[in-house]
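Ticket 4471: requesting a sanity check on a complex prediction with flavin mononucleotide. Repro inputs:
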Amino acid sequence: MTRPSRVLSVIVCGAGPAADAGKLIKLAQQRGWTVQVIATPAALAFIDITALEAHAGSAVRSAYRSPGEPRSMKADAVIVAPATYNTISKLALGISDTYALGILAEAVSLPIPVVMLPFVNTALAARHPFRRAVGQLRDEGVRVLLGPGEFEPHPPGTGGQQLDTFPWQLALDEAERLTHNELREADPTAAPQPRRTAELPVLDQGGTAARHRVRRSPHRALASAGPPGAPAPSQLDRCR
Ligand SMILES: Cc1cc2nc3c(=O)[nH]c(=O)nc-3n(C[C@H](O)[C@H](O)[C@H](O)COP(=O)(O)O)c2cc1C
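Returned structure tokens:
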């Protein structure tokens, strides 16, 4: 079977915007991506599985496959949207108790972009564990779109009014930019991909505005170079 040129894994968590995940699928497909959808168990209550499967043309996965079932496609980029307080916090701690977290636990170490677009209110976003989690994930090279000009937390109880403005496109733009930059590292002759803005202000761990650089984590460098005796990234079972 011929592998599609670019595969995007969209991980959907259990928050209001999940009901509109079809918007991201459509947008990505218009830009030439093949999309596969992974839902957390909590997200299943928010999404129309049949509609998403029809959009994506493949099954929505929320659990590990049974032995003998076909594997998912290897992803060239991963977007988590909406990313919940729960999944962001657990990913930073290394917890892998859902299929979605299992995919993410591995993807963070691989040389593919992982972009998280949170949907949290100000009460959740203010928690120290959450702020720590965002900082830790950024240190590992995850692009967390949180802060001015990106996703900005809303007052508790107002989430329902924010659904129409959830910035799906931002996540896709960023995944595309980072994917292009990964390719550039492999092929320096490829044209550079400009940032959406010159610099993106985001909240640092202390909640103050800071300038964000996309960091390349030591783990990613390790995955690219390949530790002694380890399989090359292309041999890894990247998205089971
Ligand atoms: C109606 C409803 C709305 C919710 N909205 C949010 C939300 O906006 N952000 C969030 O982080 N969690 C929200 N939650 C809570 C999550 O669904 C819950 O923490 C769940 O455990 C998340 O699991 P997941 O991260 O595996 O998807 C909401 C729950 C319900 C029932």
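Notes from triage: The longest strand covers residues 77-83. Leaving this open until the requester confirms.
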